[in-house]
Design brief:
Blueprint (H helix, E strand, L loop, with lengths): L4 E2 L5 H5 L5 E6 L4 H16 L4 E6 L4 H6 L7 E6 L2 E7 L4 H9 L1
Parallel strand pairs: 1-3, 2-3
Antiparallel strand pairs: 2-4, 4-5
């Protein structure tokens, strides 16, 4: 069972360039919508070993948040082959997130 990876500036490039599609959740501990999204993101990680799922705490990793112009959280980012293919701000239902990953 895959768990959600804690992503920071030290491991970001390695994760981003994974051979698997990558879902990154930009969040903060004080953010209520982020807390709502956490179990959904964890579920996607647990049920879909074909994806790499990570979380980036914007309080601890302001450089990464800035790199993606994260203005509001949660922001979900999807990479395929190291390239950004999708970015969306705000809480999303699981089906939308899976559609982003499959897109």
């Amino acid at each position: 069972m895959m768990s959600v990876l804690n992503v920071n500036k030290d491991n970001f490039h390695e994760i981003k360039n994974s051979s698997k599609p990558v879902l990154l959740d930009f969040y903060a501990d004080w953010c209520a919508p982020c807390r709502m999204m956490a179990p959904v993101v964890a579920e996607i990680a647990a049920e879909n070993p074909q994806y790499l799922v990570g979380k980036i705490n914007v309080t601890n990793e302001p450089e990464l948040a800035q790199m993606f112009n994260v203005m509001s959280i949660p922001t979900l980012v999807v990479f395929k082959d190291g390239k950004l293919i999708h970015q969306s701000a705000g809480a999303r239902p699981k089906s939308d997130i899976l559609a982003m990953l499959n897109g």
